[in-house]
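Here is the promised in-class demo. Please do not try to memorize the tokens; focus on the logic of going from shape to residues.
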């Protein structure tokens, strides 16, 4: 085969190996779907929100300095929320059979720029457990922050609640099945071209020219050979009779 294939030759190879390509796509997408729906457990999330704001403060004297102080403390609070000082108490009160590191990996803390609202998100295989942990983390954090930071500026803005129809956040089944189908397509197309390259059978005059580096100057018709063969066979039977 030429090193550079024309578009027509590429389409010809794909058409020739179309069954192989379709089989790879269906199998890879199907196996991935089976794993996602029946083997890999879904991950659910629950979220609670806390508000960083001074308690019992006179709004008339609450100025820019106090606002800046609250915003600057948020980064510190984000670290404290996932610290052993908070999580060990959560594990103890909920009697969780996990390590502090494992619980920390389930927690993500975020907030918008210049926002005093902090989101505490828990991801867990058990949806009900995720809700309980999210609320307990916020509760323990509010209780402990006056001792840890000597401030009292935490309010629970909203607690996590259990939904009647929870939806998993991980894995994204549609995304992973699509990726598997594309991977199967790429792999099968690559295999199709590899098989074509490894196929050393002579199919036409062009293959002969490439192998021998000589031009083809004649061609024997297959139809004439068949007729000649039939004629020879009939003469042979006539002589025997």
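The designed amino acids, position by position:
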């Amino acid at each position: 085969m030429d090193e550079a294939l024309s578009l027509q030759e590429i389409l010809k190879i794909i058409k020739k190996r179309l069954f192989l390509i379709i089989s790879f796509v269906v199998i890879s997408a199907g196996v991935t779907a089976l794993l996602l729906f029946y083997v890999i457990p879904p991950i659910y999330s629950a979220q609670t929100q806390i508000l960083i704001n001074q308690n019992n403060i006179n709004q008339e004297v609450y100025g820019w300095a106090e606002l800046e102080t609250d915003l600057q403390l948020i980064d510190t609070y984000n670290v404290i929320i996932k610290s052993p000082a908070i999580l060990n108490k959560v594990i103890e009160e909920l009697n969780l059979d996990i390590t502090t590191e494992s619980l920390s990996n389930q927690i993500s803390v975020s907030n918008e720029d210049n926002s005093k609202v902090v989101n505490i998100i828990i991801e867990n295989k058990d949806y009900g457990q995720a809700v309980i942990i999210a609320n307990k983390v916020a509760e323990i954090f509010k209780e402990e922050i006056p001792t840890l930071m000597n401030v009292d500026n935490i309010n629970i803005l909203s607690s996590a609640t259990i939904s009647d129809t929870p939806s998993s956040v991980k894995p994204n089944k549609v995304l992973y099945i699509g990726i598997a189908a594309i991977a199967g397509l790429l792999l099968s197309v690559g295999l199709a071209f590899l098989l074509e390259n490894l196929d050393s059978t002579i199919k036409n005059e062009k293959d002969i020219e490439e192998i021998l580096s000589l031009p083809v100057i004649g061609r024997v018709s297959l139809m004439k050979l068949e007729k000649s063969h039939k004629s020879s066979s009939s003469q042979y039977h006539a002589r025997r009779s």
